[in-house]
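I can't quite decide. Please look over this sequence plus structure tokens:

:::
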Amino acid sequence: MFSGLIRNQALAEPVQPIALGMAGLPFWASTLVVLPVFVQAPWVREQPFTSCLFGLVLLSVGVITNSIAPKQWKDFGALLVGFSGSWLAGSLFWGWLAIHPLLHLPVEAFALPLAITGLGTRWRLGCAFYLASLLGTAFTDLAMALTGVMALWPAVIGASASDATGLLQDAAAYVLRPTSLLTVTATGVIIVQFVQYCRSRSSLSAANDKAWAVAAAVLLTTLLIDGLFLLLSLLAPELSGLV
């Protein structure tokens, strides 16, 4: 899926470290994965239209940053472009289609053709972010379907806060069944294998390092967030929700 990441017009260029502090692009990729949980989720519940508009703002800022900003910021601009696709898809789904779980992945994949064709362009980092996010979503939805949790999704979305707590506890009970635990564990192991693969590819050459490292950071962060919400559904379901 990520093989196209090695095709870009800058194969002969050395890596230009991005002056953004912390651990560079992987750190910011992970931050962008976490951001929707704390910012987009409450926003889209109240104002889905403005949340969608903000996705367009993110896209515009990313394009402008990649085009005219100093060189060390261009990669971050490309990353924002990929993030804007995930943000916009999330706003569309959670704003108007949340009670239809089978539409989740198709809506999230609305920019898939653009992301695939963009792997060989200067937007490869954004494409890597978007595709890794989509892959993480696919694994999450698959695990929810196989464990039976997805059947509770519409009820949780339409329930009051007090009723949702009980439904989330029921969902946690589904996950605690032996077959479900095996499914969740297998899914986690597969994601970890993808993370390791992306990290190994990032070390092959300097030109490939950033795109593969971004993909690894996105997948690992997605796995950690899923694990956090599983723990919340078990220990404090009133703080959790379906994501």
